[in-house]
Amino acid sequence: MRIDLSRHVPPGFDLWYELRFFAAGMTLAASWSLSFLYRFVSALWALYGYRGIERYLLPGAVMPDFHTLLGNALTGFLILAIWWIAAFVPAHYAHHVVGSKSIYLMRRLPNRWELHRRCWTLPLSVVLLCLIVAAILLLTYYGIYMAATPEECLTPHQWQKIWSVLP
Amino acid sequence: MIQIRNVSKSYGRKRALKDINLSLPHGEIVGLFGENGAGKTTLMKCILGFVSYTGEITLDSEPITPKNISRISFATSEHSFFPNLTAQAHKEFYSEHFPRFSEKRFRGLMDFFGLPMHEPIRGFSTGQKNQFEVILSLCQGADYILMDEPFVGNDVFNREDFYKVMMGILEPTETVLLSTHLIEEVSSLVGRAVLIRQGRIVGDVYVSELEDSGRDLMSYIKETYHYRADRVSKAIDELTGEE
User: Fold this and answer.
1) Nearest CA of chain B to the CA of A137: how many Å?
2) Inter-residue contact B59 to B71 (CB < 8 Å)
3) Of B50, B81, B120, which is closest to A102 when you measure between CB atoms?
């Protein structure tokens, strides 16, 4: 099933302009999230010592908690979501009064929600996508953390500790 | 019938409409005349629910809500189309949202005025944009067509064509409320004239009544507005007279 996105933005709004912003924002947010991998690999290497070329686990070495390494790696998605709502919802409404007063047409449609639907659908979809991608990355990074960290270096209750940072 | 009872509207301290009472039955072409700022546009916006007001406006005894709003269309000199869309895309949008949209009338009027179907409206001339705005309002399938200065920027031949076509295609049940300054031009088109001044209705007359009494619309309007015919000559005298 193919979704015609132009039906979910104000009529005549430059959808590709918005999608280009979206692609750029997602790329930046995803790139920023890779900072987790940098911190994780650095912490992983710190668990080991070297005898010549032979690597060994340092006695008593403990891996920092997952949430510490995660840090603000997923903040880009939060910023993207908030920025999208703050910038594009007003832009969508303003589109109906720039160049013509198509707001007069939208406000006299039998479907009273059509104006708001077209102004909010894409921004809310972007927020949802940001949440989904952030959740997928969180699970992926958690999986990498748990799989790649030597068991004896892990402290318990890592998953619960993620949520303990929430107020 | 659109019934307007005791409608008043203020913008801050300024009273734009004062106790308006008016009824618009089926099948009339009503001219709404008045100077700039008299309240013509505000009255139309009240009917459409674009602005809040006190009083009551009903359509066949029902309040005007999304349930019956499609029975009213609106053409404005500010334009209410989407500039980036083509005429074809507008046709599709209107067909989707207005069940009584007349594709036949739309095609006929687009052909008559030679407007392109596949070019964005922003590329049209001002006259073409006005034509397109009016075409949409005539094709929506509305019983009441409100037109607010729809021909600003159109040349006289173009306007005449439009009046003729409009007279030819309107169904007996369709009502037009036409606000314009082009009184003499539309005097043969309208069947009734409503005069509004400083937010009050100061005249409401059927053109046939005027004709029966041997008067024309223009003289009636001048009379109602207490137009002083000598004011121009007085002004010229004052401006050109010696000190």
Assistant:
1) 39
2) yes
3) B81
User: A112 to chain B: which residues are within 8 Å by CB?
Assistant: 66
Per-residue pLDDT band at B17 (split at 50, 70, 90): very high
What residues of A are in contact with residue B85 (Cβ under 8 Å)? Answer: 11-12
ipTM: 0.89
Query: What residues of chain A lie within 8 A of the CB of B67, using their CB?
Result: 110
The whole-angstrom distance between A99's CA and the closest CA on chain B is: 7
Beta strands in A79-142 (DSSP E): none
Q: Looking at CA atoms only, how far is residue A29 from chain B in angstroms?
A: 32
B123 in A contact zone (CB under 8 Å) = no
Across the interface, do B80 and A100 touch by the CB < 8 Å criterion?
yes
Would you kindly state where each structural domain of chain A is located, as residue ranges? 14-164
Give the separation between CA A133 and CA A125, rounded to whole angstroms.
Answer: 12
pLDDT at A166 over 80: no
- The CA angle A53-A55-A60, to the nearest 5 degrees, is 150
- Burial category of A159 from C-beta neighbours within 10 Å (exposed 0-12, middle 13-18, buried 19 and up): exposed
Determine contact, residues A120/A89, Cβ cutoff 8 Å: yes
Tell me the per-residue pLDDT of A31-65, one tens digit each, with 9 for 90 and over. 999 999 999 999 999 999 998 889 999 999 999 99
Spell out the domains of chain B, with CATH numbers in brackets: 2-240 (3.40.50.300)
Instruction: Give per-residue pLDDT as tens, B145-197.
Output: 999 998 887 888 888 888 888 888 999 999 999 998 888 888 888 999 999 99
